[in-house]
Amino acid sequence: MVCLGNICRSPLAEGILRHQLEEAGILDWEIDSAGTGGWHAGELPDRRSIEVAKKHGIDITYQKARKLNGYDLENFDLIFAMDSSNYNDIIKLAQSKEERDKVKLIMNELTPHQNQVVPDPYYDDNGFEEVFQMLDKACAKIIEHYR
Ligand code: 4NP
Fold it and tell me: Whose CA is nearest to atom 13 of ligand 1?
């Protein structure tokens, strides 16, 4: 799960997907998140993401932000970008067609081919619940699609 800072959207996506996988009894998927930028590396998720996750029964306080790297593209089977700018930045890191093909816009799982984006809620305190709802639906589709 990849966004810009790895403190708002992708930590939520990671926490939601892990939670849904546990509920589905799927324990052998390796889930992680990262940011295309490294400014927040080492930090906890944004407190507003922590709060909205907690409200829905999900703890994301064990997470620490980190920057996406080339090994991620090599080692993970699927890379989900939150928006088109993340998508373009990830594609620039990819070294082969195989790696480029792993990169998807996460909302295309729910609404295929529409290239809908998960809005950056950093400057919008009220945006976090909407982001949670979008990611919750998209993660359910990811499990349906790839299980
Ligand atoms: P995220 O949100 O990409 O969902 O983690 C942001 C967090 C921090 C910044 C931008 C977006 N920032 O500019 O510091």
Answer: 5
